[in-house]
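Extended Data, panel c. Modelled sequence:
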Amino acid sequence: MIPRRKSDIFLTSVLCRIISKGLLDASVEDVAELAKQVWYGEDDVVLDLKRDLSSRKLGLEQKRRALYLIDRLRRYPCLTPSKATQLKELLMPYFFLKPVEQTPIAKGLIDSYRLDKLAFDWGLDEDISVQMKDVLQYQTRHFAATQGCSTGYDEVAKAVPDILAGPAVGFKS
C-alpha cells in the first residue's frame, strides 16, 4: 500500500537520503519509495517537492540530483496527465541549472552509453538506471490497481471509448 503521508517528513527524508548519498549509492528501496510517492502520492507531493527544491540547505549538486530524479520520474505513463504537467512546471524555473559544458567524466560515460542522457543534461555523472530496473514493477497498471491508485492509465482507458464512439473518419454515411 502506498503510504498516505500525515506530513511531508517522509518524502523529504527519502529524497534527502538519495541526493545526499549520491545516486549510485541510493538504495533501491529509497528510489522505489520516492517513485511511488511521486507517481501515486497525493497531489500535495508536488508542493512538498517545490518546497524541498527551494531549500537553501541544498548544494548545487544535490539540487541537480533532485531535479534529475523528478524529471526522470515525471516521464512515466502511470502519472496522471495533470500531475505530469505540474511536475514539468515545477522543473521549468530550474532549467538554468543545466550546465552548458559537461565534465569530461560525464562526456566519457555518455559516449560509452553508461549514463542516462537526462542525468547528463542535468550536469550529473551518475544516474539511477540500475535501481530503476527493480522499481519499474511499481509503475504497472496491476500494481496501481492493487493499491487503489488513480493513474495516467485510467485516463487513457476512459478516453478510448470516446475515441471509438466518435465518427469514422473517411467514411461517408
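The chain has one domain: 9-155. This feature is highlighted in the accompanying rendering.
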